[in-house]
């Protein structure tokens, strides 16, 4: 009997949608009927990648980043909007489960996308949400809230390796909360399958992404320096709602996954945000990178600093970005060399979930994904 599965990625940038692509492909390979629920640019990206699938609407979180003010205070002011989105998306999922007789719900960081009527999976790389140093006193409270939401789901899937091989480091630690719900490690999830055949065509490829206005701020700082450098470059603006058109100066609004992979594989170096999905993609392609974290976004700042400390990639703060310095410094870093995740990790996790469908739901602790 065909299983009907709902995938619901968060609309906070594009990364939650792109890392769902290998999951959607695996579900299709198994003959599942896949429904995608989402909003905004992340939904539009998946509509372009999978035009044959059924798409359902969810309320958008629509985060807005400050241009100059504190990120923490900006997020605090939007909490009521986020709580409303969680309540509304939960009501939508309950309705969709009934209307479409769904067998399984998989949420990528949407806290409200669960139901008691079917197994519900929560995908996250932030079981431990890091706080800015001056708000460190809030960390235990934030962690309790985070885990209270995750406990509503049947299982929590971490798109990373456990232990020392993890890309996300402290972001995926659990501490004493680990025993409260089932956890599986499915390995880093990238939409890219490296070819290792591309010839280098560009000295640098710049990929811009994330909520406004910081996406535009980043682009306006980097692109003038790139154009004045005299080097071979390609710019992907990260605007899926815009036309996929290339201008005369090697700049494109958006690229499909296959086209983006081609461009990235032709790059000597990639300049990008240090969001976790970007890290997974560049790790899969084993690229050299220069990371510029979104100002005030603690997760990206932590990942960029961690990768720099490990000798993987150079990082620069956005307001200090200097292309000449960044390119010279990046030569001291080895780039990503870790082998991609074994697809069997995700396949085995799905095997276990599908075996349990039709059986009474129960939660058990899983150690290191085993």
Automatic annotation (TrEMBL):
Q: Which domain of life is it from?
A: Bacteria
The UniProt keywords, alphabetically, are: Transferase
* GO MF annotations, alphabetized: hexosyltransferase activity
The answer to whether keyword Membrane applies is: no
Please name the PANTHER family in this protein's record.
GLYCOSYLTRANSFERASE (PTHR21015:SF22), UDP-N-ACETYLGLUCOSAMINE--N-ACETYLMURAMYL-(PENTAPEPTIDE) PYROPHOSPHORYL-UNDECAPRENOL N-ACETYLGLUCOSAMINE TRANSFERASE 1 (PTHR21015)
Locate the Glycosyl transferase family 28 C-terminal domain: which residues? 260-324
**One Pfam family of this chain:** Glyco_tran_28_C
Name of this chain's protein: Glycosyl transferase family 28
Question: What is the scientific name of the source organism?
Answer: Chryseolinea soli
Q: Which InterPro entries match?
A: Glyco_trans_28_C
